[in-house]
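Quick check before the chapter quiz. The format below is the same one you will see on the exam, so make sure you can read both the input and the output lines.
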Amino acid sequence: PGTGLTTSSPGYRVGMRRIAPLAPAAASFGIAFGVLADTAGMSATASIVMSATTFAGAAQFAATGILRDDGTVVAAVTAAVLLNLRYLAISFAIAPAFEGSRLKRLFESQLIVDESWAVSQVGGGRIDRKMLVGAGLVLFPFWVGGTALGAPAGEVLGDPEQLGLDAAFPAL
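Here is the expected output.
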């Protein structure tokens, strides 16, 4: 066992394969988030950075919706934190599966999202860390890339409510 992250292990490949059908959905939700972020007054850079550093669609949609409706930054951050509290419980439950240096565990734990957690289940309340990481490594670029496509499109598309994109958050 090495200390570096490699995607050559069967576990990583299984996670990537299991999550692949969801990747287009991640991209489309990322696009919707980018459009909504633009209408909330966020710059394209800010929405892309938020997607890359938060990587939690429900929290991002909630925060952006609050800001779009003239809510405060405190309300937006509070909503995002409350929505992401589920990851605290998930993280405690699966922490024993994570090994290696603190930096490696920190990096890999950023890939814990609902979808990667779900596809990495191996039964008995256990997950396969490599499957989770493999799945997260597929979802992350689709989510961030979708945001990068949607953010500049907001100005071109106009009001997202007329396109039905305001329904993206409840759907997510």
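If your answer matched, good. The beta strands are 121-123, 126-127.
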